[in-house]
Amino acid sequence: MKFVGIVGSNAEQSYNRILLEFIRRQFKTKFDLELLEIKDIPMFNQDDTNQSNEFAVQYMYNKITRADGVIIATPEHNHTITPALKSALELMSFSLHPLENKPVMIVGASYYDQGTSRAQVHLRKILDAPGVNAYTLPGNEFLLGKAKEAFDDKGNIINEGTVKFLESCLDNFIKYVGVVSALKKPKSIMPEDLDASKPIATTITEIDPDDPDWLEKASKVVNAVEGDTYVKLDNGLLTVDQINMFLKAMPFELTFADDNNQFLYYNNAHQDPETMYAKRVPAQVGNRMSTVHGSLPPKRMKNVEWVIGTLRNGNQEYVRTIVPGSPAEIINTHNYQAMYYPDGSYAGINEIVFNFKPWLDWYLKETGQHLAGGKASAMPAAAHAHADASSGASDTGDAAAAAEAIVAEADANSGASEN
C-alpha cells in the first residue's frame, strides 16, 4: 500500500514531522509512506481562482489522489489545528477534492500530556465536512504527549508500549483502507486521444508522428545531442552513449509513450523483432498510439484506452498482467507503469516487458524452494486478476482483463507477441 503523510505544521522543527518520519522507517515493511509538507501551500483565498493551479497545490492534490490512504500528523495550537493545515485542507476541498472518499488516519504529537486530543477532535469534524468528505478511521486515537521526551536522538519513539500501540492503530488503518478500497467506485475514465492530436510542451510538431524517419528528422529539428556529449541527470552524469548502453543492458524490454499518447522510445532494437516479447521496430518511434496499435479491432483499442486512462486519472499506478498461452519456459509479464511530472501529474506510460521464468527459477534454486500446485505457466487467469495489497491498484478483475486483451492477440505493430 502507498500512503502519504501530511505534516500538519509549517515550522522547521516539528515533532509531528519526526513522528511521521518514525512511522515511515519503523513500518516500511507494512506500507510505503511519502511525507507531504504544507509550508509551500499558500494561505487560502477564495477570491484567488488561480491558487488551485499553483505547483505546491497541484503537487499535494496529485499525491493524495494516487495514495491508498492519508495519515495526518497534527500539532495542537490553541485547542485546534494549525492555520497552515487548515488552509491546506481548504485548498483540498474548494475546487479540488482529493480527500473525498479517501481513508484518513489522524495522529499527533504535542509538548503536553493530552497529546493533541482537542486538535484531533476538531480535525475529524473538518474531514467530515461537505467538500472534504474523507473517510476518517474511527477510534484508534494516537496521542503522543510530552513529545520532547518521547523521542531519542535518532528520532525513534523510546517507549516500547507506545510503539506497539501505534503499530496496532496502523494495522487497523491498513485493514480500514482495504475495506474502503473494496467499496470505493473508481473514477470514470475519459476517452483517450490515441491520435496524439493535443501537443504538449515537448511535442515536436514539425514532423509527422507517423513518418518512418521521425527519429532522424525530429532529432535535427531540436538539435538533439548524441555520442559522447554529457547529460546531467538527477543523480548522475553520463554521456548519451553511456545512457544508451545502460538502457540496452536492462534485462527488460522498455518502452515509453508520453501523455500526448505519442510512442517515443524503446530500448532493445533486435535484429529479429520476432524474438521480442513485445515486438517493436525502429519505424514505430514517434508514432501515434493509434498507429502503433492500428491493427487491433475496435474492441481491443478500447482496452488500450482503458489502460492508459486508468493510469492517467490515478485509479491505479500500474496495470500488470501475464500473457496467456505462452510456452512453459516463458512467463511473459507486461507491466504498464504511470510516470509523473514534478508536480505529480501524469506524464506518460512506461511499459516493462520480460520473461519472469528465469528469475523465478534462479530464486527457487538459490533458496532451495519449489513451486507447489503445478507449473507456473499453468497459472489460471483468476490467479493474477486481483492486485495484491502492495500494488496500489484496485482489487478488481478489470485491470488484468483489459491488459490481457491488449497483449493476447496483438500483431507485429501492436507491441506484443502473437500467441
UniProtKB/TrEMBL annotation:
<protein>
    <submittedName>
        <fullName>NADPH azoreductase</fullName>
    </submittedName>
</protein>
<dbReference type="GO" id="GO:0010181">
    <property type="term" value="F:FMN binding"/>
</dbReference>
<dbReference type="InterPro" id="IPR029039">
    <property type="entry name" value="Flavoprotein-like_sf"/>
</dbReference>
<dbReference type="InterPro" id="IPR050712">
    <property type="entry name" value="NAD(P)H-dep_reductase"/>
</dbReference>
<dbReference type="InterPro" id="IPR005025">
    <property type="entry name" value="FMN_Rdtase-like_dom"/>
</dbReference>
<feature type="domain" description="NADPH-dependent FMN reductase-like">
    <location>
        <begin position="1"/>
        <end position="148"/>
    </location>
</feature>
<dbReference type="Pfam" id="PF03358">
    <property type="entry name" value="FMN_red"/>
</dbReference>
<dbReference type="Pfam" id="PF13596">
    <property type="entry name" value="PAS_10"/>
</dbReference>
<dbReference type="GO" id="GO:0016491">
    <property type="term" value="F:oxidoreductase activity"/>
</dbReference>
<dbReference type="GO" id="GO:0005829">
    <property type="term" value="C:cytosol"/>
</dbReference>
